[in-house]
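Entry for the shared binder. Reason: the reviewer on the internal report wants the predicted structure included alongside the sequence.
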Amino acid sequence: MANVFQKIPLFQGLPPSMVQKIMGLCALRSYEPEAQICAGSDRPSEEMYILLHGRLAVMTPEGMQVATLEPIATVCEMGFVIQQPRSAIVKAIQASNVLVIPKPPFDLLLQNDRELQARIYQNVTKILSSKLFKENVRIRDHLLEKTLFEKRLKEQRRRAEIALDLLVRKEVMTRDEAEMYISEELGDASLRVLIVDDEPTIRQMVKDMLSSYEVVEAADGEEALQMADEQALDLVITDIKMPKMDGFTLVTQLREQHPNLRVLGLSGYVEETDVREYDFDGFVKKPIALEEFRNLVAESLAK
């Protein structure tokens, strides 16, 4: 058993005797899907967790999923070791088994065994460095995508300005007429996504995630139907549980009034199996996984 636990990054390089000492402090805890393992707090962590089975999600306070944790991952190690308050939230995506290490006896164990303390701190440093590297890659990719989008937008604006000058110079139309014409043409060419959710933070989060599209928003199904009648929409992303009109009713009415409009369902309270009888083009489970969400949106718009 000690050999198995040596695969855990926190225990790497430790002799079996040291692993057994730590295991003697641990408790096994099980979590059902959606259960919260730890939350953001202004106080340091009093427990450190090691995922043995299942999957966990790391989310921002706004509810955006920024990482997925697989077995042998360590959770809350930073606050546990260096007493830094935790801002992120960790929830179970699947039924999960977690090894729980309580801080007071763990600190006492390290104080009484300096060699173990040095090795544990070395492993924690490696874990934090790896997580920091992955986070830097994620931020870099996001900034790169944003930079490319802004570059394309700047290029399109430059071309529009050239076309505008050409139309005016050739006396095809006045500048005001040319600006209106080009604005209408560019508006028709852009992909417009409607996010429907009664929570403003979710709407803003989706807008931030889909910064390369024109994203408009509605607070409920009734407002969304009105916008679908008034605007040219390419995709609707709707929450399921909403006041006035829920997502099920909305997609049913959209199919009747706008049969070619693509619609994605979004919820943290229902499962994909619950929405199969409704004519959604896809389903997004909260908490939202950034890359999976973007890929689903891109695939839906490409159809």
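Summary line for the report: Residues 114-169 form the longest helix (56 residues).
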